[in-house]
């Protein structure tokens, strides 16, 4: 697990959101929802509609943990924790803003986080728990074998992060 550079602080309201490309977010969310969580921790599966995540962030949270499939060129099944580099919408041209933000029904986590930042609702503590998949463009049902094998490691990583943030 890679969690280098992650700052830990006590927070009262932690939101864990999952995003689904190959289904890993939904499977992790299902396992997380089966667990007991302290008050102030919300688990939500937002599927591929990132705008829902932004709407939820408008209620205010102290921290955000997003679980998603990633393609970082690592071995399939590798679980990583990253602090995302979220683009500032004001740095984009009008054409880039249209390209990046026009279709929120198919909002990638990057686009949703960019919109949340532009709206001033992105928490300063935002982390991505990423699971390296075999192919982020793969269409089909079920997880690839390496991704499926990494689900519990992703769950454990979220539990660790939430514990660090709320403890």
Describe the structure.
- α1 crosses α5 (145-166) and α2 (50-57) packs parallel to α4.
- The chain is α/β, with parallel strands linked by helices and 167 residues long.
- α1 links the parallel β1 (14-18) and β2.
- Mean pLDDT is 80; it is low at 1-12.
- The chain has a single domain (14-166), classed as HybD-like (Rossmann fold, 3-Layer(aba) Sandwich), CATH 3.40.50.
- The protein is globular.
- The two termini are 20 Å apart.
- 35% of the residues lie in helices and 18% in strands.
- It has a 5-stranded mixed β-sheet with strand order 2-1-3-5-4, with helices on one face.
- It has helices spanning 24-33, 50-57, 94-101, 109-118, 145-166, and strands at 14-18, 41-45, 63-70, 79-82, 125-132.
- The protein contains 5 helices and 5 strands, in the order βαβαββααβα.
Strand order of the largest sheet: 2-1-3-5-4
Q: Helix- and strand-based class? A: alpha/beta
Report the count of strand segments.
5
Q: Alpha-carbon distance between the termini?
A: 20 Å
CATH H-level homologous superfamily name: HybD-like
Task: Provide the helix percentage.
Answer: 25-40%
CATH fold type: Rossmann fold
Mean pLDDT, to the nearest integer, reads: 80
User: What fraction of residues sit in β-strands?
Assistant: 15-25%
The figure for the number of domains is: 1
H and E string = EHEHEEHHEH
Rg of Cα set: 15 Å
CATH class identity: Alpha Beta
CATH architecture: 3-Layer(aba) Sandwich
Q: What global shape is seen?
A: globular
Sheet having the most strands: 5 strands, mixed
